Structure formats: structure tokens, C-alpha cells
Amino acid sequence: MPDNTDLVSRIHFSPDDGHIWLDDQRMLLLHASGFGVLRHELIESLGVERARGLLSRMGYNSGTHDAELARRLRKNSEPVDTVLVGPQLHMLEGIGTVTSVRTHVDEENGQFYGEYLWHGSAEAEEHIRLYGLETEPVCWMQLGYASGFTSRYMGRPILFKEVQCKAHGADFCRIIGKPVDEWADAEAELNSLRADQLTGGVAAPSASLLGSDDVVGVSAGFNSVCHKLRRVANTQATVIFLGESGVGKEVLARSLHRISKRAEGPFVAINCAAIPDNLIESELFGVERGAFTGASHSRPGRFERASGGTLFLDEIGILSSTSQGKLLRALQEREIERVGGHRTIKVDVRVVAATNLDLQEEVRAGRFRADLFFRLNVFPIMVPPLRERLEDIPVFMNHFLRKFCTLHERKVLGFTAHAIDAMLSYDWPGNIRELENVVERGVIMAPDDGAIDSVHLFAGGERVEQRYLAVGAGGSLGRSNTAPDISASDADSSRVHRKVTQLLAGIVDDRDTTTLDDIEEALIDRALKLSGGNLSAAARMLGITRPQLAYRQKVRRIDGSDSGA
After folding, report:
1. Where is pLDDT greater, at 60 or 209?
2. 296 or 337: which carries more pLDDT confidence?
3. pLDDT (0 to 100) of residue 290
4. Each residue of 505-516: b (16+ CB within 10 Å) or e?
5. What number is the average pLDDT over the span 470-487?
6. pLDDT value of residue 383
7. Do 130 and 183 reside in the same domain of the chain?
8. CB-side exposure of 254: number of CA atoms within 13 Å?
9. 550 Cβ neighbours under 8 A, 6+ residues apart
10. Phi, psi of 417 (to 5 degrees)
11. Domain with 527 in it: what CATH number?
């Protein structure tokens, strides 16, 4: 194992306000026996399989966050040393003693193999204390952690399997991790990482070959959406999906139909934004022959075609007032009239809608009928944007990589470390739809038998911005999208300002002992002064979050370097 001083230095206890910090992540110090009680309650109330799934996904989430810390702290280290942050943090967090048997990392070719021994596993010991020896492995949360950490680091799903467990009566536990598609007998582990029966999960071997209707993900936000879909699937309730464009609302609507009692019926979708306003009624309700010029024959609308199944109304927020009124009547009465017709037609349809607008705001602005909103808002499901589901990005990267390698008959092995960092730091304004397009572009641009690099991905005008803090004359601090202008320095600037200017200019002055901590402290002090002590405003100036700035302030107080500002 490499030296862990860099990790230990990131742990801080702040007893005055009841916080423990690992870098900028808040941690908890939990009694092992208390965790054992929680585990026991989950097993007894939910059953073994559901408890295992919950704890596995809990560990997976923790692992992905620690992988971010690993990349930050050891960005200039060898890949193996960076991956070993995971086992080292496992030990620092009191889980047990980890011994590395073998760690092989090849990011560009997407290759990973890890084999580790766990001595004194807290999870296994608590299970033995409560249940005695078992025939199956029991270190569920730890396995989830290992899978989450390496999946986030590698940018593709890596699955760990416990091949020997202390709960079996062995002296120690042994785990092996490798890419999902290299496992042939890990169904139990795959099931644990799946949100529920709705999805093929993070690591289903055929997931990327099932087409765009496949739903994958492991994040808490994704799991929450899956839980709501499962709860509402076998009811007749109207469902409305809310969220930004490209988050997968139609994919989820199709999944809802597929697991509902109406699965044998048709799924009919209409994009309300793509139909001219004067044609939307005929598209929805159908038209009788002679109803208007060009209507040479009668034809059914989407409501009739979806009878016995599901009608999906995408971008429903842009419907005109007239169309909204007729849609409201169809929902209330379960009957329609074709355009130019004089008879009512009963329809048996479940309506599922979607919009990227704030319908409550649209109602307040008078652009959307309040009565229609309340009729649709029976079971709303908010789908979070991709930037709030970072754990899902490696899953989608692997999913779309395999899909487009098959579609375009290309052999691309994986993503470079630079590409992975770029994918995880980009804001994804177009969400999953944009990520899919970017990966397809990368598959096309990357060399055969090679890896996708960031230059292959972001070649379509996307702005992967790096914003700099500009230190001007007199030490003034501001935001800029370009590198700081070093010509602004003068002879009277501060020591820190002079050092920054020299570094940017490539000048080395051995007499100046200014450290990186000095520079960070000066930037924080200047931002706080400019913001009048407002942490949120200062954090925005510095390009970090308020909790990150608050953490840095706490560390300064603990280290005794804060002057009391």
C-alpha cells in the first residue's frame, strides 16, 4: 500500500459544531453495534435480498464519492496507487484491514482486475454476532463500496464478488473485481445493485444491447424514480414526468407501460411540440371524412389507437388553451369526439404526460389551465438531471460505448483518464440525450483498438469550461473565462500576488517561500472581504460550493492558520 498521509491529513474533527470531515465530505462516527442493529432491522423487516440490495447501493454511493477524492488527491500518481485509495479509506473508516493481492489498472483499454483480502471485516463480524455462520457472503455494503469506487474511477461498471467470507468460517474475506462483462456467474451481485425489477440494472451483461428503451442507473435519484414507477405501475393513475429535456422521460414512460397491467396493449406517443397547433386536435382525437379540406377519409386519433394501452403526451405544457380544454374533457369523461364528428367514442386509455416546464408557474402565468394541471398532477415523478446523478455517468458511458460499438461495427476498448475526468466534470445541459450523442461521436472518432480521449468526445462545440480566478493589481479578485493577465502586476503588489504572477510567467524564485496554502488563504480572504463576509457569495467567486468553503474555513481554524476573519 502507498503512504496514506495524504488521506489522514484530510480527516478533521470539529467537536465545537459536531462535524467530522473527510476533505469536504461530512462523515459520521457510528458504533459498529449500532450498524449491526440497523442491519438486523433491515433484514427482519425487508427480507435478506432487499436488505442486501439496500446496503449494497448504500456502499456503492459511498464508493463513488471516495473515488472523486482519490482522483483529486493522487491525480499525478500511478493509476494503481490512486485505486488503492479505496482500500486505504476502507481502513481509515474502520471497516477492516485490507491487503492487496493484485491490482491491475489499464484505463485506456478498460481493463481492471483487483483481488484483496479483508481481515476483521466489521460487517461480517456484526452479522456473525447476530446470526452466526452463513452459507452465503455477507459483506454487502463493502462489496457495493468496492464496485462503486472502481466503477467511478474506471468510467465503466466494475463488479466485485466476495469469493470467501469470514461468515463462512474462514479466517478472512477475499474479494475479486473485474469488468461486468467478464463475469459469468455473478447474478446475485448484479441483483443487489439493481434498483428493482424494473431495470436490467447497472451491470446486466446485455444491457447495452437492449436498445434505447433500456433503463440503467445506480444513483439515489434513479432508485427513487424506479421505486415510484413500481408503486404506480399496476394502478390506473395518471402519471406526469417532470424534468429537464433529455433526462429520459419517454424511456421511463415506456418502462412504466412495460411493467403495467396494460403491457399487452399499445404504447402510443405524441410529441405535442412537434404538431402544428391547428392539427393537434385531429392528431389526438381523430377526424371524420369531410371535416375540413383534404380530409378525404376518416381516421382515428391517438386516443383511439391507444385504447387498451398507454397514451404518452410529451411536452404537454405547450398545448393551446383550446386543446387543453378538449384534453381535460377526454380525461374526465373517458370519451372523445373526432374533429367534424357528432358522436362520442368511449376510450380505455391510461394517460402519461411529460414536460420540462414548471406547470405551476405556467398556471400562475395563465398559460396552462389550472383544472387540467390538477387532473394531470395525480402522480408526479420528478426525474433529476444528469449533473445530480454523477454515479450514473460511468454506467451510461459503458452502456452507450457497447451499444455504438455494435451499431457502427467499431472496436473501441474504453476511455482514457482524461476523457473520464472530462465526462465527470461536464455539466451535461442536454442530459442523457447529450451524453449518448457525445459517446457515439467518441466511438466514431477514436482509433480502432484504441481508447476514447476527450478530444474525440467534445468536438461538437461543447464548452468544458475552466474558469480562472484572476488576481489583479492590489490583490483584487474576480472571475474570468481566460487565464489571468500577468501584465497587471506591479511593484507594489502583495507577496502572494507576486508569487502567483511569477508562477504563471514560469519564473522560479527560490528566495520566495510562499506555499500553495498561502495562495489559497489569500484568495479566500479576498473573496470574503469582497462579499462582506457572505460565504455563499464568496464561494461563487471562488467557483466552489458553500459547504466546500465552510470546510476550508474549519480546517484553517483547526490548523491554527486562521487569523480570526
Report:
1. 60
2. 337
3. 57
4. eeeeeeeeebee
5. 37
6. 92
7. yes
8. 12
9. 535
10. -60, -40
11. 1.10.10
